[in-house]
Design goal:
- By secondary structure, the chain is α/β, with parallel strands linked by helices.
- The protein is built from 14 helices and 9 strands.
- The chain folds into 2 domains: 48 residues, no CATH class; 277 residues, 3-Layer(aba) Sandwich (Rossmann fold), CATH 3.40.50.
């Protein structure tokens, strides 16, 4: 029984009209718990107070013993592997976040989507496709995936085509460049996953997986995501030419097939290039090109490629219903202070303290007043600003005298606006013939 006094609401008055015998419960100080929950849900003031108290009680720093983050036992004990559910088996979905209505809710929702993918949450993204090029490699993003998987005690299987050394001693390293066939590679991945409940399989180059190993993406996806209910992260280099030896007209290009199967698509961009593109867009200039797209002889990679300040992620999240949500994020390099130093039993890395991935609009450099001021000054052509405005042979602006003369011009329909709103009048265009008008009387006789 609940002893909390709740003010009268509309639902209370409705119940009193239909069930007068229930007045003792509504007007008294003792009501059933289920009825108190309903009254709290329908009372805006109480609901707002309860939500504010709940938010105030939560801390921004995640505890190092957080059961929602760390998996103490990831060993598979046998039996049927249950498929991942969207709400972790919870049937009550009343607390699921609805479509954001305000800007603050939208930003929290966007960060939550990216954090669930990076944090390897259940059913967040069975197959994450990462697109990169020479201007911005996906190495920082892959490292963040591995750091968070190690902190959560998730088994990591790293299928490498471009590296000869394991990124971490706790990672199961499979050298795919060592003469392994496609069938043997699938067997190696399965052997590395069968003793664990949750696993993360990372392929650092899907292009070589298709071109050299002749492996079907459907077979790899069915093994990792369907059979073992684990997560798959694959990197595809966009600056590599597709394989032209296979001339099957009914086979789609590998990149199109990957985009069709992926549940999350993340494109990596250099932070310096994004800032340059923003400055060009603010001044209505064409977006600059970098690297191979410049078309300059001998230029493969720009000097400001792979910015060390962080990486920009252009992500697309696909829901089961088919609706896609897009967002741009900024991921800085992780530091040792982002994770707890004290380790739990069986833990390789400490628990993540606080989520540090943000939306791109929240980045102080991207939205700094100094950068915006320089862009506006360059667009206005102020003295001392570095501008690349195209010069023309005629003046596009107006002088003060011309502006004053333009304001004195009376348009032909100006008098019609005075009679608007009268009954039966409607919209009319009034035109008074001037003395300077050229009127030919012979035209009426023709």
């Amino acid at each position: 029984m609940s002893t909390t006094m709740i003010p009268m609401t509309d639902i209370d008055r409705r119940i009193l009209r239909e069930l007068p015998d229930f007045a003792i419960h509504v007007q008294g100080d003792k009501v059933p718990d289920w009825f108190a929950n309903i009254r709290i849900f329908f009372h805006p003031a109480v609901r707002t107070t309860a939500s504010s108290i709940t938010r105030a009680s939560k801390t921004d720093i995640r505890s190092r013993t957080s059961k929602e983050w760390f998996k103490p036992d990831n060993r598979h004990r046998g039996g049927i592997r249950k498929p991942r559910t969207r709400f972790d088996g919870r049937k009550d979905i009343t607390h699921v976040m609805h479509h954001p209505k305000t800007l603050a809710q939208f930003e929290r929702h966007a960060v939550h989507l990216m954090a669930s993918v990076l944090g390897l949450r259940r059913a967040s993204s069975p197959f994450t496709l990462v697109l990169d090029d020479l201007n911005q490699r996906a190495t920082p993003l892959l490292n963040e995936f591995m750091y968070r998987a190690l902190s959560r005690n998730v088994n990591i299987v790293y299928v490498s085509f471009e590296s000869k050394r394991t990124p971490h001693p706790s990672v199961t390293f499979i050298p795919a460049w060592d003469g392994l066939t496609g069938a043997t590679l699938l067997n190696e991945v399965e052997q590395a996953m069968k003793n664990f409940t949750d696993s993360l399989v990372i392929v650092d180059s899907l292009h070589e997986l298709f071109a050299l190993k002749d492996m079907s993406m459907n077979a790899l996806f069915a093994l990792v995501a369907v059979q073992y209910n684990s997560l798959l992260v694959g990197v595809y280099h966009q600056d590599l030419a597709p394989d032209t030896t296979k001339t099957d007209p009914y086979t789609p290009p590998p990149l199109n097939l990957l985009k069709y199967l992926a549940t999350t698509i993340i494109e990596c961009k250099s932070f310096a290039h994004v800032l340059a593109a923003k400055a060009a867009a603010a001044r209505s200039l064409p977006e600059p090109t970098f690297g191979l797209l410049q078309g300059a002889e001998g230029i493969i990679q720009c000097l400001d490629a792979n910015d060390t300040r962080g990486i920009v992620l252009d992500a697309e999240f696909r829901r089961k219903s088919g609706r896609a949500e897009k967002g741009k994020y900024f991921l800085r390099p992780s530091r040792g202070s982002d994770y707890h130093e004290a380790l739990l039993p069986g833990q390789v890395m400490g628990t993540l303290k606080k989520e540090f991935v943000t939306t791109l609009d929240k980045n102080p450099v991207y939205m700094s007043d100094e950068v915006i001021g320089l862009v506006n000054a360059a667009a206005n052509g102020n003295v001392g600003a570095k501008t690349d405005i195209v010069e023309s042979t005629f003046e596009l602006g107006l002088t003060e005298k011309q502006k004053a003369a333009r304001g004195e011009v009376v348009l032909p329909y100006f008098d019609a606006q005075k009679t608007m709103g009268e009954a039966g009048e409607g919209g009319r265009i009034l035109y008074d013939m001037g003395s300077e008008d050229d009127f030919d009387e012979e035209e009426d006789e023709i």
